[in-house]
Amino acid sequence: MKQGLHNNATAGDINISVLVSGGGSNLQSIIDGIADGRIRGARVSLVISSKEGAYALKRAERVGASTAVVSRDEYPDADARASRLAELLSGAETDMVVLAGYMHVVPPGVVSAYSGRIINIHPSLIPKHCGMGYYGRRVHESVLAAGDSESGATVHYVDEGVDTGAIIVQERVPVEPGDTPDTLAARVLDTEHVIIVKAVAMVADALRER
Ligand code: GRF
After folding, report:
1. What is the arithmetic mean of pLDDT over 28-44?
2. What is the model's pTM?
3. Which domains does the chain carry?
């Protein structure tokens, strides 16, 4: 793990660890939300990517967050992967975990260790078009195939299921005539960037009140 300098960190701030797999636009929204004050009393302490070289890691380094990669290549054994994740999260004194474009199921041991303070963003109106196998483009293909007139994004608590935890924030977007999975994905992603900040702020505030 690369140790990051926690810029403008204040004692008592909530340490947020973010799990990513790709570009990190949701991570960037969280970073921006902290910088502009929509998220208060929190810092992104650690970013763990499941993919080597994910651009999300660059976004993390830019703000001095620590970074690490826990990939299936490096950790093919599920138990070893789970204990590495747990070791990194506790090493960063994690108060809250955010799955932001993380394309894997979180090991049960990690879910239970952070129960009530681990959240995920999903690009549909849960409970529609979610669950095992519904991620990224597949979600939007499913919405279009179903002929839905609207879609949206959801931030929810992570529990032992897949996309089944209590909903924190949800926002709708229209499905437009002629939408392709890509045009719908782009519209939903804009909404993700809004609700991820709202949800992180709500949960961070609640955790600070504890
Ligand atoms: C996007 O498909 C988003 O809908 C989902 O994860 C993917 C990548 O997000 N939540 P990000 O840009 O890496 O945050």
Report:
1. 98
2. 0.94
3. 14-208 (3.40.50.170)
